[in-house]
Amino acid sequence: MYDLIILGAGPAGLSASIYASRYKINHIVIGNIFDSSTSKAHLLENWPGEKSIKGLDLVNNFSDHAKDLGADIFQENVVEITKEVDSDSEKNIFTIKTNLDKVYQAKSILMALGTKHRKLNIPVEEEFLGKGVSYCAVCDGAFFKEKIVAVVGGSNSAAMAAMMLSEHASKVYLIYRKELLRCEPIMIDRLEKNEKVEIIYNTNVTKVSGDKKVELIEIDNEYNGSKKIKLDGLFIEAGSVPSASLIKGLEMKTDDSGYVVIDQSGATNIKGIFAAGDISNGSNGLRQIVTATSEGAIAATSIYKYLKEK
Ligand SMILES: Cc1cc2nc3c(=O)[nH]c(=O)nc-3n(C[C@H](O)[C@H](O)[C@H](O)COP(=O)(O)OP(=O)(O)OC[C@H]3O[C@@H](n4cnc5c(N)ncnc54)[C@H](O)[C@@H]3O)c2cc1C
Q1: Alpha carbon distance 147, 169 (integer Å)
Q2: Same structural domain, 124 and 225
Q3: From 264's CA, which of 93, 121, 179, 224 has a CA 20 to 30 Å away?
Q4: How many other β-carbons are positioned within 10 Å of the β-carbon of residue 143?
Q5: Residue 39 alpha carbon to ligand 1 centre in Å
Q6: Domain identity same for 271 and 221
């Protein structure tokens, strides 16, 4: 029986692990650093102390730091969490099952599961996944050397994906459904100066098609006199949704968008379960690495106090 199991090996989970080790909380981390949103970020330029660092390098640094302090990180997927009340302590104890049929038990849990990308839900999006449709510019961008690609979305992630893809592709369309991108103004400046990038506003992608791979997209507004654009790749950066499948069975309180509701200490409505990072409604909705690491640290501190409570 562990004192704490941290679910998620991204900035929130790994920061919590660093703090937990220093509090001498007997814990493990379950998750995959390569599955963290941070490893999909091409270049980070707002992590204090690093003017520019690759996302994967930063999350690797977090993981090395956590391991140096003694953390065991298991690359498994949690498929079920159940709880029961311990008759001695009258506190919850939790049983966690993973995809490798392993079972772990803990006195407390930190949910640091992050978010998953939102789909566009247009015809044959799923069938073309890996055949021109991608949700990760960092992972797949290099396959589009001298090709024509489009990015769908208006966020920082979408802007960053367009900039990154322009290093490989011959042309990058950035297609957004509204009339103003919602990314940081500094990103808009960079996009506008980039000769390979063309921004198409007030437009939705309605269909993707091709023979064996992506060849064409259809849009709902005319662009250069046509509602069709020929291209080789479609990168979808349409936002994210909390990784909520595990929390459903636990009757965990979420907000209207599905984010786990936490108080200032990181506690959820279920005694012994805390949440941190992108999955939570904390930090005024700012879902970034600085906030994920802070929430992880706060939660670990609260868990330390919770475990000591009689
Ligand atoms: C393209 C892109 C660019 C970004 N750029 C920036 C930026 O410039 N600056 C910035 O501050 N932020 C940026 N972000 C946001 C930042 O990456 C996130 O805010 C941060 O990663 C959140 O950390 P987290 O630990 O909450 O979740 P994540 O980093 O997403 O980690 C989630 C973890 O949960 C694990 N997990 C999920 N489900 C399960 C399960 N069932 N069982 C076990 N483990 C599971 C995953 O394996 C992963 O380890 C960017 C994000 C993207 C996608």
Answers
A1: 5
A2: yes
A3: 93
A4: 15
A5: 7
A6: no
Q: How many domains are contained in the chain?
A: 2
> Strand 273-275 and strand 103-111: pairing?
parallel
Q: Rounded to the nearest 5°, which phi and psi values hold at 186?
A: -60, -30
Alpha carbon of 10 to ligand 1 centroid (Å): 5
Angle in degrees, CA 276, 264, 113, rounded to 5: 10
- What is the domain extent for residue 202? 119-236
- Ligand 1 centroid to 36 CA: how many Å? 4
Report the nearest atom of ligand 1 relative to the CA of 296: 25
Contacts (Cβ under 8 Å, ≥6 apart) of 76: 30, 98, 99, 100, 102
DSSP 8-state code for residue 44:
E
| Contact call for residues 12 and 36 (beta carbons, < 8 A) | no
Atom of ligand 1 nearest to the CA of 136: 1
Most informative mutation of 19, 29, 38 for ligand 1 (most atoms within 8 A of CB): 38
Pocket of ligand 1 from Cβ distances under 6 Å: 7-13, 30-33, 35-38, 40-41, 44, 46, 77-78, 112-114, 157, 160, 243, 246, 277-278, 287-290, 292
* Tens-place pLDDT, residues 36-84: 999 988 888 899 999 999 999 999 999 999 999 999 999 999 999 999 9
pLDDT at 87 over 90: no
Q: Are residues 207 and 304 in the same domain?
A: no
- Take atom 26 of ligand 1 and give the residue whose Cα is closest: 277
**145 and 231: one domain?**
yes
21 with 73, same domain?
yes
Cα 38 to ligand 1 centroid, rounded to whole Å: 5
Helices 55-68 + 11-22 axis angle, to 10? 20
- 119-162 tens-digit pLDDT: 999 988 989 988 999 998 887 898 999 999 999 999 998 999 99
Domain end marker among 201, 236, 271: 236
